[in-house]
Specification:
The chain is α/β, with parallel strands linked by helices. The chain has one domain: 3-Layer(aba) Sandwich (Rossmann fold). Helix content is 36%, strand content 27%. It contains seven helices and ten strands. α6 links the parallel β7 and β8. α3 packs parallel to α5. The longest helix has 18 residues. It is globular and about 50 Å long.
């Protein structure tokens, strides 16, 4: 029996209206199953990052329907979407966006503190567990500005995992890394997907990375051309 979909996009269309009308995403339909590791590829300008911003609920100016864990996201208000994002979607970007004046541990704890479902002690324990999972717990007390690029991306992944999301979305998560660290990031994603039955959806230009994922969605000129 197939796993139920975590993310469902039905007939997503997106227009840019300034300076002229441009149909940037056209009739996008796909699902991501629970535990599935999916990559989105395509040339620059094909619409893949625009699509990711819609899927992550950060862009609500689109036509069509989007749901996460069976909950309709389309039409929800900004504060509702912000709460869903924080609890159910983990983000890993090309640039890690760690707060340099905070320690590694404090950076990982931030989304859980914002969610406010657990005590500070529980959040700290969970954050250390995520750092252990990614083999970077020995850096917990260091300022995030004092660790290497590869280590920063591990911390960013730990932060994305802290609220035990339904899906992790990545926008070029290996784009700023050398090939060794890029391979390490893939291995970490694969590990957390397998161990936690976690869905992953990653936009990438890295064909080595994409080729190892469960499924590739290829985009061209605002459409899905293969999936």
């Amino acid at each position: 029996m197939a796993a139920p979909p975590v993310l469902v996009a039905n007939n997503i269309n997106k227009y840019f209206r300034v300076p002229t009308l441009f149909h940037v995403l056209q009739d996008i339909n796909f699902e991501v199953a629970k535990g599935e590791f999916v990559s989105i590829i395509g040339k620059s300008g094909c619409g893949k990052s625009t699509l990711l911003y819609i899927l992550s609920t950060m862009d609500t100016d689109y036509e069509g329907d989007l749901s996460l864990d069976g909950v309709q996201l389309t039409g929800k208000k900004g504060d509702e979407l912000a709460a869903i994002r924080n609890e159910h979607i983990g983000f890993v970007f090309q640039f890690h966006y760690l707060l340099p004046e905070f320690s590694v541990l404090e950076n990982v704890m931030l989304p859980a503190k914002k969610l406010g479902r657990k005590s500070l002690e529980e959040i700290e324990y969970d954050a250390m567990e995520k750092l252990r999972l990614l083999d970077i717990d020995d850096q917990a007390t260091k300022l995030s500005s004092r660790i290497s690029g590869g280590q920063k991306q591990r911390v960013a992944i730990a932060r994305a995992l802290i609220n035990n999301p339904s899906i992790i979305m990545g926008d070029e998560p290996t784009g700023n890394l050398d090939s060794k660290n890029a391979a390490n990031v893939f291995d970490m994603f694969q590990q957390v997907s397998a161990e936690q039955n976690l869905s992953l959806l990653v936009v990438t230009h890295d064909m080595d990375f994409a080729g190892k994922t469960d499924r590739i969605i290829e985009m061209a000129d605002g459409r899905i051309v293969s999936s």
